[in-house]
């Protein structure tokens, strides 16, 4: 009987091993930079659903990489760090428990990280199987996501910006208009031999999209201010996170700096219900995730990226034929009807993760991540 090859072994072609080593050095040096520049005392953060203790998160990043790349996903294979699974396996350690754990000191965490990094660097210097390439790529992308999460946390806590972002530059040659897309049968999702994918992208399937018109530009601070002026009787619920008004002037906090609100910038740190309410006021609607995918797959000279994750009207659900990859907690636990799909990328997302097929997802009450939106005509 012919053996069935697991899906994750067929996400080819993989980047070259030289490229993976460059990515690994880049993401790991960034993580270490973030932790090394954390002032004494800043590692103690309040227990909130949107935060993690920074030293716990650092340990988790190293643990995840070691567990999947070097321990082959098996707890029976011993970790370099004693009690690592009980400390840093996010599938075993509840969110609230992370504040009560006896986390090793920072020198030990740096040594654990360095040992893991060096072992993978050595691996990348010799021939590797598709399985090894998959788990190395997965671990790099996992670390990229946590580096971005550090930026969210630092913004929430009012800390200094942890690393420089890659802000989108406005293309003033793109007219502010609706881009019209005809009705079409569209292939959504991913398939084998398109390079690395995440399991919630499985599988490619055809859907029939009705004609739609989508804004070439994201909603701006100035446009959102217009909306706020019509909410005078109940303004508070609709004010974006990290905005304040003082003597008639609006300000926005960017990490540890309060800045005068720039009306031409995309509005950010918006909850899903705020985006929906704005759309209702404008007599427009949020795009679906498939409409955003089509937009992001089109010529970038026709639309203005926001540099933000953009809310869609689509609930995060599995595509037809979905099946879990080895890291089972990546997608399935969040198909609960309480998460919404966001598309695109933020200024803190590395280029290697910016794909039109990528599906991000958050609960609708979240606004701490760098998120915004654009609208469609009704």
State the total count of DSSP E strands. 13
**What is the string of SSEs from the N terminus onward?**
HHHHHEEEEHEEEHEHEEEEE
- Side by side, the strands of the main sheet go 11-10-9-12
Query: Radius of gyration in whole Å, from Cα?
Result: 22 Å
Outline? globular
Low-confidence segments, ≥5 residues, pLDDT <50? none
Q: What oligomeric assembly is this protein in?
A: single chain
Structure report:
By secondary structure, the protein is an alpha+beta fold. It has 8 helices and 13 strands. The strands form 5 sheets. A 4-stranded mixed beta sheet has the order 11-10-9-12. A hairpin with a 2-residue loop joins strand 6 and strand 7. Helix 1 (17-36) packs parallel to helix 5 (130-157) and helix 2 packs parallel to helix 4. The longest helix has 28 residues, at 130-157. It starts with 16 loop residues before the first helix and ends with a strand.
Keywords:
single chain, alpha+beta, 8 helices
A few lines on this structure:
The chain is an alpha+beta fold. The protein is 31% helix and 15% strand. It has 8 helices and 13 strands.
Secondary-structure map:
Layout: H1 17-36, H2 54-70, H3 84-88, H4 106-123, H5 130-157, E1 178-181, E2 184-188, E3 205-209, E4 212-215, H6 221-229, E5 243-246, E6 249-254, E7 257-260, H7 272-282, E8 284-285, H8 289-297, E9 309-315, E10 339-344, E11 360-363, E12 371-372, E13 376-377
Parallel strand pairs: 9-12
Antiparallel strand pairs: 1-4, 2-3, 5-6, 6-7, 8-13, 9-10, 10-11
């Amino acid at each position: 009987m012919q053996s069935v090859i697991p899906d994750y072994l067929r996400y080819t072609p993989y980047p070259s091993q030289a490229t993976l080593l460059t990515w690994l050095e880049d993401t790991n040096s960034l993580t270490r930079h973030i932790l090394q520049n954390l002032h004494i005392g800043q590692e103690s953060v309040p227990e909130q659903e949107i935060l993690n203790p920074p030293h716990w998160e650092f340990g988790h990043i190293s643990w995840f990489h070691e567990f999947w790349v070097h321990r082959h996903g098996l707890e029976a294979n011993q970790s370099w760090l004693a009690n690592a699974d009980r400390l840093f396996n996010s599938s075993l350690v509840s969110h609230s428990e992370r504040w009560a754990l006896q986390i090793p000191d920072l020198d030990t965490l740096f040594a654990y990280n360095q040992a893991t990094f060096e072992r993978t660097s050595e691996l990348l210097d010799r021939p590797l199987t598709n399985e090894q390439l998959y788990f190395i790529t997965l671990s790099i992308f996992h670390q990229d996501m946590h580096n971005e999460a550090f930026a969210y946390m630092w913004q929430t806590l009012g800390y200094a910006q942890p690393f420089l972002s890659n802000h989108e530059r406005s293309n003033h040659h793109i007219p502010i208009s609706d881009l019209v897309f005809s009705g079409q049968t569209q292939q959504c999702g991913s398939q084998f031999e398109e390079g690395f994918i995440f399991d919630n992208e499985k599988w490619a399937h055809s859907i029939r999209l009705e004609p739609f018109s989508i804004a070439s530009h994201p909603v701006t601070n100035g446009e959102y201010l217009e909306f706020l002026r019509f909410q005078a009787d109940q303004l508070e619920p609709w004010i974006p996170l990290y905005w304040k008004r003082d003597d008639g002037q609006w300000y926005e906090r960017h990490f540890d700096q309060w800045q005068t609100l720039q009306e031409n910038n995309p509005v950010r740190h918006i909850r899903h219900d705020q985006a929906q309410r704005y759309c209702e006021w404008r007599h427009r609607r949020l795009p679906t995730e498939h409409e955003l995918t089509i937009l992001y797959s089109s010529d970038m000279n026709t639309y203005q990226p926001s540099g933000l994750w953009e809310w869609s009207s689509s609930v995060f659900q599995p595509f037809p034929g979905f099946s879990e990859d080895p890291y089972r907690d990546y997608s399935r636990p969040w198909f609960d009807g309480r998460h919404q799909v966001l598309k695109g990328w933020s200024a803190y997302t590395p280029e290697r993760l910016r794909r039109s097929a990528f599906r991000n997802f958050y609960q609708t009450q979240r606004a701490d991540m760098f998120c915004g939106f654009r609208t469609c005509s009704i």
